[in-house]
């Protein structure tokens, strides 16, 4: 049960009682259901008072929409390529040593799994020959 479901009513007028059970049921107002903290900070208010999402994953929504307004396909391709370059600049690339260690780990794991599957395959083949001749 969420905390907002267990929240005590502000006064007795907000609480209602069940006829058979006698259990108090909290009345939850719309303001209590709005997200708090970081989720609420992700919203922006426009000049007319409406809320709109701020940045989704570090990409500005307004900048993204601005590039799609043009009907020129070359402009759209250019905007896409600049966004790709911008995202690639954010990538944390592994160092040479990390890459070697990860590659060796993958090769060892693949070799081990291949050996296990080959062993099972040979074992089942010999079992079938023994059973069915």
UniProtKB/TrEMBL annotation:
Against InterPro entries, the record matches this protein to: SecE_bac, SecE_sf, Translocase_SecE/Sec61-g
Offer one example of a GO biological process linked to this entry.
protein targeting
Q: Which molecular-function annotation in GO is an example for this chain?
A: protein transmembrane transporter activity
Q: Which residues cross the membrane?
A: 99-120
Which residue windows does the record flag with biased composition (Acidic residues)? 21-30
User: What Gene3D superfamilies is this protein classified in?
Assistant: Preprotein translocase secy subunit
What is known about what this protein does?
Essential subunit of the Sec protein translocation channel SecYEG. Clamps together the 2 halves of SecY. May contact the channel plug during translocation.
**What does the similarity note say?**
Belongs to the SecE/SEC61-gamma family.
Q: How does it assemble?
A: Component of the Sec protein translocase complex. Heterotrimer consisting of SecY, SecE and SecG subunits. The heterotrimers can form oligomers, although 1 heterotrimer is thought to be able to translocate proteins. Interacts with the ribosome. Interacts with SecDF, and other proteins may be involved. Interacts with SecA.
Write down the HAMAP family for this protein, in alphabetical order: SecE
**Could you identify this protein by its name?**
Protein translocase subunit SecE
| Lineage of the organism | Bacteria, Bacillati, Actinomycetota, Actinomycetes, Mycobacteriales
